[in-house]
Amino acid sequence: MFKEFKEFISKGNVMDLAVGVIIGAAFGKIVTSLVDDIIMPIIGIILGKIDFSNLKFVITPATATTPEAAVKYGLFIQNVVNFLIMAFVIFLMVKFINKLRKTDAETTEEVAEDVPTKEEILLSEIRDILKNK
Q: What pLDDT sits at residue 108?
């Protein structure tokens, strides 16, 4: 069982996935910082100095014994913007990778067309033999 697990872990796809998850987590932090620290303050200034992180609808105010119950729709807006940026960047990456794969496939097809098959070689030899007789 340990041997099978070792083979599973050492396969390239699993390692690629692990690297992708680690890079994705780091990239997620960068995008979150971009949204929270740069984009949302600019949008807030454009919309009249609104701080989105503090936007909320208070259901019951806080008292000495109970905390405030509120719907924090400002944080939700920030998370939506964060998601849209991440989705757009992933879309661009997938589009770029598909373009590279398509170019590689076309190159492989061109090389395959230039190499004659066994049947073509055999037919060429038969033609040459008949031509010499």
A: 64
